[in-house]
Amino acid sequence: MADVWQSSMDHAVAVARKAGEMVRGALKDDRTVMTKSSAVDLVTQTDQKVEQLIIQSVKEKFPTHRFIGEESVAAGESCNLTDDPTWIIDPIDGTTNFVHAFPFVAVSIGFSVNKQVEFGVVYSCLEDKMFTARRGRGAFCNGEPLQVSEQTDIHQAIVATEFGSSRDPTAVDHIFRSLRNILCLPVHGVRGAGTAAINMCLVASGCAEAYYEIGIHVWDVAAGSLIVSEAGGVLLDVDGGDVDLMSRRIVAANNRTIAERIVKEIESFTLQRDDAPLQS
Ligand SMILES: O=P(O)(O)O[C@H]1[C@H](O)[C@@H](O)[C@H](O)[C@@H](O)[C@@H]1O
Ligand SMILES: [Mg+2]
Ligand SMILES: [Mg+2]
């Protein structure tokens, strides 16, 4: 049966690679840093230019498709997922890393139809690693199949997480208590690449057993969520229920045993959903 979304996925890979070239080029220039929701929620003109490059290129080829882009939402566009074909774009995942030339920076493009991710593309620009997944057809890195770790013992796991962009003391307390609970299980180690998308690709690659975070957005995790599940992994909400990509919370793990063990240690809290009505 013809795969109606293959041409869209091919375009996503091509434009992610082109965006990666733009990111690498911008690393040679001075980067003007602006802030969004907090003093540490950074954005640059390169984030904005990359998002426009991706969106304009898609509009030319697929004029009926819709978009959820991190920087478009930051500029006031809505973040509502419909049944329509929708490109869910994080132009630079790891902007803080980009600003500091810390070498983990990704372009993340998820593609949803009927509110289901059909393909995901994460291009780790400085590693030149193209992570891809098509629903039901596996996950790959530069064309090589990906498979999650087979580890079921949490005490022999590496767990990835991030501290996020909030410095609200209550949220930070929850984040640190969760981190302490997990670190002291003990686990072999806790790591963070500084980008949700690359953390999820590390889980899909079998390099980390799990990644969890409260504070992410749909554009951070849409592509990575499919790459993890197509590599044999599982996705949960931090409370152990079904994952909800708009909820700003996620656990991505190699298997349910590890995922549910991590859920037990997380002090969860809720944040305003990505698709909450815009404040008037
Ligand atoms: O770099 P961006 O796209 O803003 O995404 C990161 C976010 O800013 C951080 O707060 C999260 O902790 C990371 O997981 C995101 O990758
Ligand atoms: Mg991001
Ligand atoms: Mg971003």
TrEMBL record:
Known pathway: Polyol metabolism; myo-inositol biosynthesis; myo-inositol from D-glucose 6-phosphate: step 2/2
Major place of residence: cytoplasm
Single GO molecular function: glucose-6-phosphatase activity
This protein's GO CC annotations: cytoplasm
Leading EC class: hydrolase
GO BP terms in the entry: inositol biosynthetic process; phosphatidylinositol phosphate biosynthetic process; signal transduction
Keywords: Cytoplasm, Hydrolase, Lithium, Magnesium, Metal-binding
Catalysed transformations (reactions): D-glucose 6-phosphate + H2O = D-glucose + phosphate; a myo-inositol phosphate + H2O = myo-inositol + phosphate; alpha-D-galactose 1-phosphate + H2O = D-galactose + phosphate; 1D-myo-inositol 6-phosphate + H2O = myo-inositol + phosphate
Family matches, as Pfam families: Inositol_P
Extent of the signal sequence: none
Residues at which Mg(2+) 2 binds: D90, D93, D220
CDD domains: IMPase
UniProt-listed Enzyme Commission number(s): 3.1.3.25
Binding residue positions for Mg(2+) 1: E70, I92
Localisation: Cytoplasm
SUBUNIT field: Homodimer.
Record family assignment: Belongs to the inositol monophosphatase superfamily.
Protein name: Inositol-1-monophosphatase
Origin species: Oryzias melastigma
Lineage: Eukaryota, Metazoa, Chordata, Craniata, Vertebrata
